[in-house]
UniProtKB/TrEMBL annotation:
One of its GO terms (molecular function) is carbohydrate binding. The keyword Ribosomal protein does not apply. InterPro entries: Bulb-type_lectin_dom, Bulb-type_lectin_dom_sf. CDD domains: B_lectin. It comes from the Eukaryota. This is Mannose-specific lectin 3. Residues 34-142, 164-280 form the Bulb-type lectin domain. Keywords: Lectin, Signal.
Length: 301
């Protein structure tokens, strides 16, 4: 059992900080979009992205702030410079904080080619704008805020079967990382599971919305994101290790697989901006994302 050794003064300060934070972000119109903001969308005053202990908040005082619990990790320092401010991700990958009059109070200065970009609050506390996607499951569904029992079951199975070396990894797979059999990426009502039968399956609640159709095609299979953006199912027990591939490999860049709050699983391209606030992942959240010696395979795309 944890013992609280904080002094009354420390506890009072902590309570005050929590109260101020709630005042800045709370109201009936405050919204959370999970941990992903796609271009063409905005984060209004009081809106936030969140995952684990991290919150990326467009505060009502016009300051855009990244918090770890109550600790500020990064901010735009634009408090008091406008009213009803919004964070906007443009179709060229540039981030803006606009005032009510659409005056630009802050910008990331990362504008490039027009395409489809995504701002992601990662489980390690870094906020990154990733470039245009190279692959997706094409399963866009209106997201909901309530976790389905099937997700809780998925995570419970992981804890029971893989407690010694793995657990849930949130909703992201970074390049060079693997998703082991029996594990899943999950957010809201959605979970992307690498089944023990070698099939990769995406569920909305208990409904199967997408699969790789690789049941029984390998043994000890795992999902692997190559540094060239190729997503592959690899079997450890067959002569040909690659059971399934997206066919999207091209060059050596930094890609990421994100299971979005809308139910679409997307491999996004090279990042164009970040807060530079990468932290150690809390608990065992990254313990099933292991480095393996896997033969690199390029599709020539």
């Amino acid at each position: 059992m944890a013992i609280n050794l904080a002094s009354p003064r420390t506890s009072a300060i902590s309570l005050l900080c929590s109260s101020i934070l709630l005042l800045l972000i709370s109201s009936g119109s405050s919204t959370s979009l999970g941990n992903v903001l796609k271009n063409g969308y905005e984060l209004g005053a009081g809106g936030l992205l969140s995952i684990g202990n991290y919150k990326f908040i467009m505060q009502r005082d016009c300051n855009l702030v990244l918090y770890e619990n109550n600790t500020v990790l990064w901010e735009t320092k634009t408090q008091g410079k406008g009213t009803l401010c919004r964070l906007s991700l443009q179709s060229n990958g540039e981030l803006f904080v606009f005032s009510e009059s659409r005056k630009a109070l802050w910008r990331s200065e990362t504008g490039g080619e027009f395409g489809n970009y995504a701002l992601v609050l990662q489980p390690n506390g870094n906020v990154v704008v990733y470039g245009s996607p190279v692959w997706s499951t094409g399963t866009y569904i209106q997201s909901t805020a309530t976790a389905a029992p099937s997700i809780l079951l998925c995570i419970a199975v992981q804890i029971l079967l893989f407690a010694s070396n793995s657990s849930a990894t949130g909703n992201m797979l970074m390049p060079g990382e693997t998703l082991l059999a029996g594990n899943c990426l999950s957010i809201g009502n959605y979970h992307l599971t690498m089944q023990h039968n070698c099939n990769l399956e995406l569920y909305h609640g208990k409904k199967l919305t997408w699969e790789s159709h690789t049941t029984g095609m390998g043994t000890k299979c795992f999902l692997y994101l190559q540094v060239n953006g190729e997503l592959a199912i690899v079997s450890e027990g067959t002569s040909s290790p690659f059971v399934w591939m997206t066919g999207t490999g091209g060059g050596s860049h930094r890609f990421v697989l994100v299971l979005q709050p809308d139910g679409n699983a997307v491999v996004y391209g090279t990042p164009v901006w970040s807060t530079g606030t990468t932290r150690a992942v809390h608990g065992n959240a990254a313990s099933n994302r292991t480095a393996k010696s896997i033969p690199f395979e390029s599709t020539g795309n």
